Amino acid sequence: MEALSALQCSIINEPLLPNLNTLELWGVSELFLQFLPLFLSLRVTSILFTFGYDCPNAMIASMVSSFPTLCPNLQVIGLYSLTRDPLVTAAVSGMVLTTNRNTLQEFRTNSLLTKEASEVVYQLPNLRNLSVVISRETPLPSASLPNLTNLTITCNDEGDWSRLFHRATLGKLESVTFFHHSVHIGDFLGTFSRVALSLSLQNTLSGFHVVTSRSWSPNYSSLLPFTQLVDLEIEFSCDIECSSNLDDDMIIALSRAMPKLRALQIGDIPCGESTTGVTAKGLLALALHCPNLFVLRIHIQVASLSAPPASPGTVLNTEPAASWTNCALTDLTVGEKTVPEESASMVALTLLRIFPRIGSIDFIGEGWGKVEGAIQDHRLLK
Fold first, then answer.
1. Cβ–Cβ < 8 Å for 361, 334
2. Virtual torsion, Cα 30, 32, 33, 35, nearest 10 deg
3. What pLDDT is recorded for position 3?
4. Environment class of residue 243 by beta-carbon count within 10 Å: exposed (0-12), middle (13-18) or buried (19+)?
5. Rounded to whole angstroms, how far apart are CA atoms 50 and 109?
6. Residue 14: what pLDDT?
7. Of 359, 251, 355, 338, which is closest to residue 298 (Cα–Cα)?
8. pLDDT of amino acid 356
9. Which helix or strand (DSSP H or E) is residue 153 part of?
10. Using one digit for the tens of pLDDT, what is the confidence trace for 229-257?
11. What is the structure's pLDDT at 13?
């Protein structure tokens, strides 16, 4: 900091790094905040900041307000770790109103926005990536974002996020992520499906993610029309009791509807309490219908892997090299599920037949170390 102070005194009206294009800083402290102008210039087009807990809101607001003047050609703005404070909201909103609207391609913040700023953000013509926070007091005009490809929405309370999609223009949207912190989540997937289908997003959407810290039993059938999905993640908690209701029938329906899936993650780290879940039958169907799947995290009935089903038209074969599918899966998360020691070899053999390229098993429960060892032994026998 002494060096920066000396430089501050010696540099007059000149940026410290005149050719700097991207400035990315994490945990900006109160002490460092006063030196930020040394790094900002006409050439800076991308700023990504997280602010430390010790930064006064007044200082943050003053600095944020200066960005459009110091960096008039901003293309990327990312501001995180901001507190919900009227000063900060006013500053971030003011920045939006004065930033060059034709150059901005990415805007991400955890700050609320005023009505005026919201009307601007949801009308930016060249915006590709947007991350916003929605709450009860958040005004939401219909979005007209013809070039938007990635949208992230954080729902802090009971804000009506669906208004954003009403008569919206989102023709290039590829990925949607929701961080849902509201007490009531209800039929979230059903609501999303209705608004998304009204905009024909089933034709463009390849990524869909919902993350909530609450227990939840989603209605997955609402997602069946989204046949172009490549990455599907529905994360919820099993802390109080297991709320996973994904079974063979639904996993088969999802796999048939979404043959392009490369990553499927349902629930948080699978708990050891559930008596329901997907069996070997469902896993086999998933592997057959989604050959490009390489990441999988779901609740599995481990006992079913000890007595695997025969592949259609195939006689059950005990040879280690015999594979039922050509699925690309390499990463499987099984969480707290346990495997009896005497079943480890058969579980390994079943997994190898369904997922012949399996390489990593992420586990907490007992017995999976022996399964991984048995997989390696079976491969050596090929």
1. yes
2. 150
3. 46
4. middle
5. 10
6. 63
7. 251
8. 94
9. strand 150-155
10. 999 999 988 776 666 788 999 999 999 99
11. 58
- Of 117, 115, 112, the closest CA to residue 68 belongs to 117
Q: Tell me which DSSP letter residue 187 carries.
A: S
Element (DSSP H or E) covering residue 6: helix 2-10
Residue 258: per-residue pLDDT: 98
**Cα–Cα nearest to 120, from 104, 137, 135:** 104
List C-alpha distances in Å: 50 to 23, 30, 64, 136, 202.
12, 12, 12, 25, 34
Spatial distance between the Cα atoms of 140 and 158, rounded to a whole number of angstroms: 13
Write down the pLDDT at residue 157: 72
125/128 Cα distance (integer angstroms): 9
Q: Give the three-state DSSP class for 280.
A: helix
Domains and CATH numbers, the chain: 14-322 (3.80.10)
Spans of the chain, pLDDT less than 50: 2-4, 6-8, 10-11, 313-318, 320-321
Residues 6+ apart with CB under 8 A from 116: 93, 97
Angle, alpha carbons 210-213-217 (nearest 5°)? 65
Rounded (10°) angle between helices 344-354 and 368-380: 60
Residue 208 phi/psi, 5° resolution?
-140, 125
pLDDT at 311: 57
CA atoms within 13 A on the CB side of 191: 14
Instruction: Give the span between the Cα atoms of 377 and 355, in whole angstroms.
Output: 16
Q: Length of the chain in residues, anyone?
A: 382
Residue entry with tokens 């109080």: 240
Q: What's residue 7's pLDDT?
A: 47
- What does each C-alpha distance from 157 to 7, 342, 366 come to in angstroms? 45, 49, 39
Cα 228–Cα 263–Cα 265 angle in degrees, nearest 5: 110
Residues 6+ apart with CB under 8 A from 118: 138, 139, 140, 141
Is the Cβ–Cβ distance between 178 and 209 less than 8 Å?
yes
Token pair for residue 61? 């607001």
